[in-house]
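Human: If only I could read backbone structure tokens as easily as an amino acid sequence. Take your time, and here it is.
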Amino acid sequence: MNLKSALQHVLGINKIVDKKVLAAVVKEMNSRRALNWTPKSIYRTRADVKTWNDALSAYNSVEDPVTYLIQNLYDEIRLDALLTSQIENRKQQVLSAGFSLKNESGEINKELTEALAKSAYYHIITDLILEKKYVGYNMIELSVTGAGDEMQISVTKIPRTNFNPNTGLFYSDYSNTINPVKYRELPEYGKWIIEFTTGDIGLLNKAIPHVLFKRFAQSCWSELCEIYGIPPRVMKTNTQDPSMLSRAEQMMRDMGAAAWFIIDETESFEFAQASGTLSGDVYNNLIRLCNNENSMLIAGAIIGQDTVNGNRSKDESAQEVLYELVKSDMETVEQDWNNIVIPALVKIGAMPAGLRFEFNPFEDIEQLFKFTTGLLPFKDIDDAWIEEKFGVKVIGNRMTSPDPSERGGEEEKVKKALDKKLSAFFD
């Protein structure tokens, strides 16, 4: 189905012939989106555990469920640097992985694969598919410009605050729940409107308390640095004498910007001391705990953070655990592209039917190169294959093998060494 027939099917138009008419129809269709929302200003206030509990209660309400509170809180905790780095580290491994679009026969369609890899909407859609694991759900609305080979697909992300996948309702103004739209009953749903959901509240819900406690610890630690970094000045004088008190105040103002106060000669002042307070160990331990918990939540392990007790073997093991999660993310992306995205693109005429999205198998290039170099003295390897796999331009042979009659018993040694290498590799 091409764009022309897709527009006829969606809009109920019997005949579209002229390209100008087609362009006008596309422009009109894009201007009247099925789901329109009112942008809202968000006033940032300090979030705490009460904010989290209120958001959960509103989300889990049976009578009137509300999603915007928890989604705004998700956006707030994403300001945490470590949480962002852990999520991006996991997502970017999927976004940078190679993929192929295969025909029904299993043959790779190189032209469409390259076109999809270069398109902007591939990264946007794939990113939103990966995001649903953390935030629970995502939804987009497609639009097109041009036709045929010049067709350009644009993706508009629907704010998660404005719809609830549990009820199937969309709100143009999330603070006003009057006259919601049942978006799954719209004719555009499944074609121009695409939804990704996990059916739960999202993984970031478990990260919220750790980010909030970490902020609390950082705030307290910064206050400690302010107090003990520039200690306040104390001056004793006769506070009953106005002239002496005035002179003392003037002296303290002229001596610098540090905090100061004046007490009477008969009074005394002392800082309260707690064990380990000055070093900040209490706050540092809490921050480290929160960081470790979020790392375990997102990456499955603590990677490269513990510089005191860390070592290479621990980091390598952690990377292996992370890669298992990345492979799970790849399977999720493949399922959503094959079951949701590609069928929608076929319906709007942006992609032919019968295609299947697959990530390319992972190859350990370093290990493959070691095996190849070890095999070179014993076997001939295709120059074109070496150039394709390792990017090394190979021209001819560097040297020829000696005559077997001159090698004596070396031929048997070579055969045994080759068998040993092959058995070690395939076992």
